[in-house]
TrEMBL record:
<dbReference type="Pfam" id="PF00849">
    <property type="entry name" value="PseudoU_synth_2"/>
</dbReference>
<dbReference type="GO" id="GO:0008033">
    <property type="term" value="P:tRNA processing"/>
</dbReference>
<dbReference type="GO" id="GO:0009982">
    <property type="term" value="F:pseudouridine synthase activity"/>
</dbReference>
<dbReference type="GO" id="GO:0000455">
    <property type="term" value="P:enzyme-directed rRNA pseudouridine synthesis"/>
</dbReference>
<dbReference type="InterPro" id="IPR020103">
    <property type="entry name" value="PsdUridine_synth_cat_dom_sf"/>
</dbReference>
<feature type="domain" description="Pseudouridine synthase RsuA/RluA-like">
    <location>
        <begin position="27"/>
        <end position="175"/>
    </location>
</feature>
<dbReference type="GO" id="GO:0140098">
    <property type="term" value="F:catalytic activity, acting on RNA"/>
</dbReference>
<comment type="similarity">
    <text>Belongs to the pseudouridine synthase RluA family.</text>
</comment>
<dbReference type="InterPro" id="IPR050188">
    <property type="entry name" value="RluA_PseudoU_synthase"/>
</dbReference>
<protein>
    <submittedName>
        <fullName>RNA pseudouridine synthase</fullName>
    </submittedName>
</protein>
<dbReference type="GO" id="GO:0003723">
    <property type="term" value="F:RNA binding"/>
</dbReference>
<dbReference type="InterPro" id="IPR006145">
    <property type="entry name" value="PsdUridine_synth_RsuA/RluA"/>
</dbReference>
<keyword id="KW-0819">tRNA processing</keyword>
<keyword id="KW-0413">Isomerase</keyword>
Length: 224
């Protein structure tokens, strides 16, 4: 999921720092806090971001994929050009497996389902995206119910994006009538105000180590 926030908007960077989940000579895996850009925005006050913080300690660190400003969770950070190239090819081939945890409004009926709705930029409401079967790019998400809270009328989901479109999980959840709690872009006011942050977290990622080809499975449980 790439940063799709308007890069000219001033954003408050979280004071919470990233956590290192895995580290060796060529690759780093970290847990990004919510409300922190992955890379610098064009606004002069948006230079504080994940990669700028990581590069203070790891000078050769680079970005191969991103999480939205509002989303917390796992980010792979290559430390060499070889690692960057190799992991980039894995993402392009869609062999990197990942899933997110989300808390959504309402009780999702199906225990599992696949959402296949094409997405396009909503030019009238930037930086939002919308479902558009005519001009949108193919976008697929696997959905699994983890638990339902009938008192709060909320459902905890495991979301596995097959594709990696901007705001894919947020728009897909809105499209099926279950927006993510704390989503100020896509949820109704009451749902957006129910949390001080977007309740979406990249919990697990699996990829091949660029040097050894060993399968690495990294997990960072959601804080909500």
């Amino acid at each position: 999921m790439a940063d799709a926030i308007d890069s000219l908007t001033k954003l408050q960077a979280s004071s919470e720092d990233y956590d290192v989940l895995y580290q060796d000579d060529i690759v780093l895996v970290v847990n990004k806090p919510a409300k922190l850009l992955t890379v610098p925005g064009r606004h002069p006050d948006n230079h504080d971001c994940l990669i700028s913080r990581v590069q203070r300690e790891f000078l050769t660190a680079s970005i191969v994929h991103r999480l939205d400003y509002d989303t917390s969770g796992i980010v792979i950070i290559p430390l060499t050009k070889r690692a960057l190239s190799d992991i980039s090819k894995q993402f392009q081939a869609r062999t990197v497996q990942k899933h997110y945890i989300a808390l959504v409004a309402g009780l999702v009926k199906a225990n599992s389902q696949q959402i296949d709705l094409a997405l396009a930029a909503d030019m009238a409401n930037r930086p939002c995206y919308k479902v558009c079967q005519l001009e949108g790019k193919p976008s697929t998400t696997d959905v699994k119910v983890l638990s339902r809270d009938s008192t709060k009328q909320q459902t905890r989901l495991q979301l596995s994006p097959i594709t990696g479109r901007s705001h894919q999980l947020r728009v897909h959840m809105q499209a099926i009538g279950h927006p993510i709690v704390g989503d100020t872009l896509y949820a109704p006011d009451a749902v957006a105000a129910a949390s001080s942050r977007l309740l979406l977290h990249a919990e697990q990622i699996q990829f091949l180590h660029p040097l050894t080809a060993q399968v690495l499975t990294i997990t960072a449980p959601a804080a909500f």
